[in-house]
Amino acid sequence: MHKALILNGPNLNLLGTRQPEVYGSTTLEMVENLCVSHGSSIGIDVSCFQSNHEGALIDAIHAAKGDQDGIVLNAGAYTHTSIALMDAIASVELPMIEVHMSNIHAREDFRHVSYISKVAVGQICGFGARGYVMALDGLAAHLNCGSTA
Ligand code: CA2
């Protein structure tokens, strides 16, 4: 059984409470429950963590080294700004799938840039909460096959 960390960044604790036209009506708790149950159906033991603080996210990435087999990361707005998060992912050498609820490429120009993508196996965006399930499937394929084929 593989282990994966679902890591959510700033403001994602507000999912389902505001801006449903952009982020849907699914709460973070529902997203996390979905990930745990989908993970168990595909042989991944899922743990979840959310923080609004960059340093806490970096600490969680460091702690994943040696404990987890991969990470699903929605870094929120830090996606577009944080070289520190990018460096943390690179330093732990764990496969990471980047997720966004919204299609960041169809939004403001500043959301088109992702530092996270530079160290990701791949990026999933625009599918709402289902993107996390897709990311877990992608991580499982990557862990089981060792390639994107
Ligand atoms: O689409 C995504 O998942 C984002 O990572 C969400 C971030 C945004 O800064 C990224 O560009 C794209 C923002 C998360 C804010 O989440 C909220 C949820 C509900 C209500 C208000 C904010």
List its salient traits.
149 residues; alpha/beta; Rossmann fold; 5-stranded parallel sheet; 5 helices; binds ligand CA2
Sum up the overall morphology in one term.
Answer: globular
* Total separate domains: 1
Q: Assign the CATH class.
A: Alpha Beta
**Main β-sheet: number of strands, strand sense, barrel status?**
5 strands, parallel
- Which oligomeric state applies? single chain
Helical segment count: 5
Structural class: alpha/beta
The radius of gyration is 14 Å
User: Cα distance, first to last residue?
Assistant: 21 Å
CATH superfamily: Dehydroquinase, class II
User: In percent, how much strand structure appears in the residues?
Assistant: 15-25%
Can you give the mean pLDDT? 96
CATH topology: Rossmann fold
Strand numbers in spatial order across the main sheet: 2-1-3-4-5
> What sequence of helices (H) and strands (E) makes up the elements?
EHHEHEHEEH
Low-confidence sequence ranges? none
Site (Transition state stabilizer): 18
Function: Catalyzes a trans-dehydration via an enolate intermediate.
Enzyme class: lyase
Family: Belongs to the type-II 3-dehydroquinase family.
